[in-house]
Amino acid sequence: MQKLTLFLFLLAHSLCFAQQKTEINSTLEQWHKAAADANFDTYFGLMTKDAIFIGTDPTENWTNTDFKAFSKPYFDKGKAWSFSTLERNIFVENEVSVAWFDELLDTQMGICRGSGVVQKTTDGWKIKHYVLSIAIPNESVKEITELKKTFDTDLMKKLRAKSN
Questions:
Q1: Which of 105, 100, 112 is nearest to 87 (CA)?
Q2: What backbone torsions phi and psi does residue 60 show, to the nearest 5 degrees?
Q3: Nearest 10 degrees: Cα torsion 36, 38, 39, 43
Q4: Largest Cα–Cα distance of the chain, in whole Å?
Q5: What pLDDT score was predicted for residue 137?
């Protein structure tokens, strides 16, 4: 009887995690679709009010409010950005109100990697933290590093001066 109870508990627990992952996947797909459809309200409605969005440029570390201000002109023109999912991994631990994920995306910049944290709210899963990066093959790193050398050097000087 104890083995059956344990088995049923583990099965129920496993099904709960599977359901959570399905819901999170749906939220992320809706979020990307809202951008492709230039649906500002839906896009930002799928983010927490205190969400952070980190873009591909090293200066892009936005609060939700700042990201809305940056993004609004793109959405208003009816063309934001269009990312489609190539691969996604979702991780849920015992605390099922927070989960994290990583994804490979087909974008206008080629393959990008997104990663982030989602939080369960009374309105469903919402994106709390998102990081977008351009995926660079290892064999191209030297060339890319050279291309961005001046920008990086100038930004590092500025950031170091700011921290002193």
A1: 105
A2: -90, 90
A3: 60
A4: 69
A5: 96
Token pair, residue 35, equals 């951008």
Tell me how crowded residue 130 is: count the other CB atoms within 10 A of its CB. Answer: 21
Look up residue 164 and give its two tokens: 């002193």
**pLDDT confidence of residue 17:** 74
50-104 tens-digit pLDDT: 999 999 999 999 999 999 999 999 999 998 999 999 999 999 987 679 999 999 9
Angle at the Cα of 34 from the Cα atoms of 33 and 40, rounded to 5 degrees:
165
pTM for the model stands at: 0.87
